[in-house]
Amino acid sequence: MKTIDCRNMACPAPVVTTKKALEESGAEKLELLVDAGAARENVTRFLQNRGYQVAETELEQGFALRIDTTAAAPPRTQAAHKSGETVILLTSDRLGDGPEELGKLLMKNFVITLLELPDLPSRMIFLNTAVHLTTEGSEVVEPLQKLANMGVEVLSCGLCLDFFHKKEKLKVGSVTNMYNSAEALMAAGSVIKL
């Protein structure tokens, strides 16, 4: 049995580490060590949604989740069939309406998590304060560059960059205008607005 220690990892690392362990696992059984709370719930839900039975044991520090990687049932939920390109429209440098620090952490985790998904958007359009994510000083420039290298078109609003005096500080992707942004949104098979 292979054991993977996911304790003391910030979200989304426990789920991402679990996903990678499953992909690389040649062993019949896998044990994941996770913290109590969100990490335990998120990893368990991730495994169950993929058809795995999870046996859980409480430890002094966290939980041990044991799964048989050869005995996965068909996933309970299937992804909907998609047609056309997917465009992600970002209009803020944070996710949600709560505290600024939490919103920025959630946005960072969202962008990093995109790297682990099998289906990527075709474009990411950054408007308003979201252009701060593509410019110098942003914590997500590196993951956004990786997404761009994987074929995701990263587009930042030129008017917004000018407004925030950031055009010369653009670090990833290219500058776009409202016409091109509107055209991309109207032609998309699906638009996800953050």
From TrEMBL:
Gene3D superfamilies: TusA-like domain (3.30.110.40). CDD domains: SirA_like_N. It holds the Pfam family TusA. InterPro entries: DsrEFH-like (IPR027396), Se_metab_YedF (IPR019870), TusA-like (IPR001455), TusA-like_sf (IPR036868). It comes from the Bacteria. Residues 2-62 form the UPF0033 domain. NCBIfam families: selenium_YedF. Belongs to the sulfur carrier protein TusA family. This is Sulfurtransferase-like selenium metabolism protein YedF. The gene is yedF.
